[in-house]
C-alpha cells in the first residue's frame, strides 16, 4: 500500500514525470515531491544528499536522464555516459545509506544488445553489445541494474529495474535537436502542412522497426510496479508490438494531412535494426498490460502538438 508513502520522483518536471505524478495521484498518493533541475543537479553528490535530507522519501522513482535521438546520441556520447551513470550510482547509494523503503530505477530499451532476438526478453539483456549510437547511454543506465542487484544481495536494499520502450504522447519533447522519432515526424509533417512545403526529409532507410509505448500506459506500469514488484530481475514495460519506420511515417503523414514528398536519407543511420519487447513478465509479476491503441495514441499526440503550436 503506497498511499501514505513519501514518494520522490526525479525528473518529475519532464514528459513522463508529469504523467506519472498524475497517475500516482489517481492511485491515492498525496505526498509526492519532484526532484529536478534547477533545484537539484543530480550529477552532483552534494545535491543528491540534499535531496534526501530535504524530501525524506520512503520511495524514490528515478526518471531523470540525459537523453535524445540518434543525432543527439552521436554528438554527445561522453556527457550521456557520465551524467546518466553518475545520477544512477549516487541516487541508489545515498538511498541505501538513508534507509529508504524502495528505489524504482527506469532503464532503457537502448540497454539491449544490437542484435537481440525479437521480441526482446529480459534474459537476453547481457548477450551482446548495444547498438553503437545508443551504447554510452544504454550501458550507463544498465549499470543501475547491476548496482540494484548488488545492493539487494549485500545489503537487502529493495531496488527494482524497469525497461521501458520508446515513449510517445502529449507533452513529448518536440525540440528537433533532441527529440525522438515520433515527435520529430509529427513536427515535420504538421509544420510542413501549415507552410505548404512540398518535401520533408527523414533519416535512414525506413526499414528499422520500433515499438512505441503511450506515456499514460507507461505511468500506469510504473505505479503498478512500485506497489507490487519487489524482485531483482529486470522487467520490460511496453506495448508489445512492432512497426517499421516507413509504416510509421505513412501513418503520421495520414493523420497530420501532410501531402508532400517524403525524402529518405539512407546515408543517415537507422539505429538498432529491430525493437519489440516481450512483456509477459510485467503481466505476470504485477498485472500490467498496455491499453492504448497506437493509432489513437498518435491522434492524441498530434492534437496536443497542433493545439500547443497554434497561432
Mind explaining what this structure looks like?
The protein is α/β, with parallel strands linked by helices and 311 residues long. Helix content is 43%, strand content 15%. The chain contains ten helices and twelve strands. It has helices at residues 15-26, 45-55, 70-75, 77-98, 135-155, 181-195, 215-228, 245-256, 280-286, 294-308, and strands at 7-10, 32-35, 59-62, 102-106, 159-164, 166-168, 199-203, 209-210, 212-214, 235-237, 243-244, 261-265. The strands form four sheets. It has a six-stranded parallel beta sheet, with helices on both faces. Strands 6-9 form a two-stranded parallel sheet. The protein has a two-stranded parallel sheet with strand order 7-12. β4, α5 and β5 form a beta-alpha-beta unit. α2 packs parallel to α4 (77-98), α4 (77-98) runs parallel beside α5 (135-155) and α6 (181-195) packs across α10 (294-308). The longest helix is centred in the first third of the chain and has 22 residues, at 77-98. The mean pLDDT is 96.
Amino acid at each position: 500500500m503506497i498511499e501514505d508513502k513519501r514518494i520522490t520522483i526525479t525528473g518529475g518536471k519532464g514528459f513522463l514525470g508529469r504523467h506519472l505524478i498524475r497517475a500516482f495521484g489517481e492511485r491515492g498518493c498525496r505526498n509526492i515531491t519532484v526532484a529536478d533541475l534547477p533545484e537539484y543537479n543530480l550529477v552532483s553528490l552534494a545535491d543528491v544528499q540534499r535531496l534526501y535530507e530535504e524530501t525524506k522519501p520512503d520511495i524514490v522513482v528515478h526518471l531523470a536522464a540525459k537523453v535524445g535521438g540518434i543525432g543527439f546520441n552521436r554528438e554527445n556520447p561522453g556527457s550521456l555516459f557520465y551524467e546518466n551513470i553518475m545520477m544512477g550510482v549516487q541516487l541508489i547509494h545515498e538511498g541505501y545509506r538513508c534507509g529508504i523503503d524502495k528505489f524504482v530505477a527506469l532503464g532503457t530499451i537502448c540497454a539491449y544488445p544490437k542484435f537481440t532476438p525479437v521480441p526482446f526478453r529480459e534474459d537476453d539483456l547481457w548477450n551482446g553489445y548495444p547498438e553503437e549510437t545508443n551504447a554510452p547511454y544504454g550501458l550507463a543506465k544498465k549499470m543501475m541494474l547491476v548496482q540494484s542487484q548488488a545492493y539487494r544481495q549485500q545489503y537487502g536494499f529493495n531496488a527494482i529495474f524497469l525497461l521501458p520502450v520508446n515513449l510517445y504522447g502529449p507533452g513529448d519533447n518536440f525540440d528537433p535537436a533532441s527529440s525522438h522519432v515520433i515527435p520529430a515526424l509529427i513536427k515535420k509533417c504538421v509544420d510542413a502542412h501549415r507552410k505548404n512545403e512540398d518535401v520533408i526529409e527523414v533519416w535512414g532507410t525506413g526499414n528499422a522497426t520500433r515499438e512505441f509505448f503511450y506515456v499514460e500506459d507507461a505511468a500506469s506500469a510504473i505505479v503498478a510496479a512500485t506497489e507490487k514488484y519487489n524482485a531483482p530481475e529486470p522487467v520490460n514495460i511496453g506495448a508489445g508490438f512492432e512497426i517499421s519506420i516507413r509504416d510509421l511515417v505513412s501513418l503520421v503523414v495520414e493523420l497530420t494531412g501532410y501531402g508532400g514528398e517524403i525524402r529518405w536519407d539512407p546515408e543517415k543511420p537507422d539505429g538498432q535494426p529491430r525493437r519489440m519487447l516481450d512483456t509477459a513478465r510485467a503481466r505476470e509479476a504485477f498485472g500490467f498490460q498496455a491499453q492504448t491503441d497506437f493509432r489513437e495514441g498518435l491522434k492524441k499526440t498530434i492534437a496536443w502538438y497542433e493545439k500547443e503550436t497554434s497561432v
